[in-house]
Specification:
By secondary structure, the protein is an alpha/beta fold. It has one domain (2-300): 3-Layer(aba) Sandwich (Arginase, Chain A), CATH 3.40.800. 40% of the residues lie in helices and 15% in strands. The strands form 2 sheets. The protein has an 8-stranded parallel beta sheet, sandwiched between helices. A two-stranded antiparallel ribbon has the order 3-4. Strand 3 (73-75) and strand 4 form a beta hairpin.
């Protein structure tokens, strides 16, 4: 299943900002290909306040509602900007992941992709930052736990460490967080010795690292940890800015690497009979986004053997 909403195209962080509506247009263009025509499409609902405050302090949620402009822009920090359409887009982005989780748990489809923006994985419990307002994967993970799940795994292959997701779950053993990311790079977190309560697995990659280093990190570090956790739900923060064409970072991944890691994660989800829901995070080369999303969703929606 694919979840999206037109509101996510309306969020605008201002002229020249890399987190532009063209990113989602490139993703939707990739998903318009004939091979994805039969994948069911759903319009995402808004996340509710109840869902948001499981992951975020109420003061942050209230502040974003209060700061949302009716025109022009409001700068949250040096990188994070709200326009008049941003709050609605962020609510639909978090709502998409929650709805996708509910739908994949109900079946018959066991995989979903959320084509939404703004991204979410830098938003901490108390702070919106790094282009992110609400942390969509965190909101969805805690919504699933509230409905009865006991083990939720989050895998984040964005080139930037998901400091917000780690912040929210570092003391919550019900959620495993595993991240591969370039280091050093924004936001400066994600060292391998950051372990939470034994539920955090960081696999930092040096600038210039490519397919070999990326795949080795997953084979030796990330995938065994996720498999041993035996998740009842697997969430993926799918950032494609580790691609060699991306202008904001320095890894040398290919679009095929994203297809490979997705197939590995789907195999784990199937082994544990867990639904898998992926949501768009970063990725700032439009060419790389089209190619990488195609590979990711091709692997995500392959028929079971």
């Amino acid at each position: 299943m694919i979840f999206t909403h037109p509101a996510c195209l309306e969020h605008n962080a201002g002229p020249g900002h890399p987190e532009s509506p063209d990113r989602l247009r490139a993703v939707l263009d990739a998903l318009a290909a004939e091979e994805f025509v039969r994948v069911p499409r759903h319009e995402s609902p808004r996340a509710t306040r109840e869902q948001l405050v499981r992951a975020h302090d109420a003061t942050l949620v209230d502040a974003l509602f209060e700061q949302a402009p009716t025109e022009g822009y409001v700068r949250i920090d040096a990188d994070t900007v709200m326009s008049s359409a941003s709050l609605e887009a962020a609510l639909r982005a978090s709502g998409a992941v929650c709805a996708a989780v509910a739908a994949t748990r109900a079946g018959p489809s066991r995989t979903s992709f959320c084509a939404v923006r703004p991204p979410g994985h830098h938003a901490t419990r108390a702070t919106a930052m790094g282009f992110c307002l609400f942390n969509s994967v965190a909101v969805a993970a805690l919504d699933a736990i509230a409905s009865g799940l006991e083990r939720v795994a989050i895998v984040d292959f964005d080139v930037h460490h998901g400091n917000g997701t780690q912040d929210i779950f570092a003391s919550d053993a019900r959620v495993l967080y595993a991240s591969s990311h370039q280091a050093p790079l924004y936001p400066g977190t994600g060292r391998s010795n950051e372990r939470g309560v034994g539920n955090v697995f960081n696999a930092p990659l040096a600038p210039g690292a490519g397919s070999s280093e990326f795949r080795d990190a997953y084979r030796t570090h990330v995938l065994p940890a996720v498999d041993a956790f035996a998740p009842q739900l697997l969430l993926v923060s799918a950032g494609f800015d580790g691609h060699r064409l991306d202008p904001l970072a320095g890894l040398n991944l290919s679009s095929e690497d994203y297809g490979w890691v997705t197939r590995e994660l789907v195999a784990i989800a199937r082994r544990h009979q867990a639904p898998l829901v992926s949501t768009l995070e970063g990725g700032y080369s439009l060419t790389a986004l089209r190619e990488s999303v195609t590979e990711h969703c091709r692997a995500l929606f392959e028929r079971e053997p």
